[in-house]
Every structure is written in structure tokens, then in C-alpha cells.
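Sample pair:
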Amino acid sequence: MKSTKHLFDTAPRSVLRLSEIDRLIRTHRIIVPPPSRPKLIALCTSGIFETVGREPTTFGWLVYEDSFLKWVDGLRT
């Protein structure tokens, strides 16, 4: 039986659009009141949210999901 080599040893990191992060914060009431769009962009530019590139893409700001979840976990402590 022939074996197929996997192209990736690890899965690529999933990303979220900034609008989806805003929706998650509002829906799950992570922070009340939710941060404004300029504040979310400031989190991207300061490096708190790890983003794809250093500026918005054609899809807007794309934030790695694991960095967003790490930020949320940091709010608990």
C-alpha cells in the first residue's frame, strides 16, 4: 500500500476577522461594555493580538485565533 506524505507537519493557524472578534466579545459578553473598533485596532497594532502582517489586508485585520484566546484567558486572572 502506498503512503502519501503530508504536506504540513502541523495545521496552519486559523485566523479571525476583527469584525468576528467584535461579535464574539459582544455575544459572549467577554468585556462589558465592549471595546470600540479603534481600541481593537490598537490591540492589533500594539502586538497584543498577533496579526497576519503589520497592517490590514484586503479582508481587514486578520487576527490569529490562538492569540485572541490567549488574550481572553489573560482577562480571567
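Residues 65-76 form the longest helix (12 residues).
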